[in-house]
Amino acid sequence: MVVSRRPGTTDCLSRGMIASPDGRWFTGCAASLPTFQTRDPGSGEVLAELHAYSAADVDKAVEAANEAFRKSGWATLAPNDRAVRLHRFADLVESRKEIVAQIEAIDAGKLPAHALGDIQTFIGSLRYFADMAQHVQRRSQLAVAGHEAWTLRNPWGACGFIFPWNFPMLLMGWGTAPALAAGNTVVVKPAEDTPLSAIYVA
Fold this sequence. Notes:
The protein has 202 residues and is α+β, with helices and mostly antiparallel strands.
């Protein structure tokens, strides 16, 4: 089945924009880094050429996520304020869901309708956990005779996720949405076979 590509999809695949481990963006491939290609599994067409990052680059990504956790204020935001921002993120993805779905369909070899359903699940995960986090009590009193005691629920820090190729956006939503809603930061490593929708959303 041949599906005409949306302009946004064509722009994304042609611009050569690649995310760096510390949140910056490169245009094109730096000569000092090895690269690999991701292909349309149906036609064999090269869709994009991407940086192949090393273990040291992973360390940089984790360091950047830890710094964001300490300094960005995300962890100390009230849950309802985090929810507002996650809903805005969901709104942004929803406004481009057809493009994201087509990128994922081409990259993973899925039917466009199936890919769109996965993007809807990603959006739904953001909204669900954004709302759920507002109803979790941060402090719970404990019944300890003669003492004042309680438990505190605090964000953990940087959370790492390695996702497989078959449901890139759906699984990314299931993993990152609760982590972000709880006040954590995230580092995402998509599958080499299907990285494009995650890169586009990032």
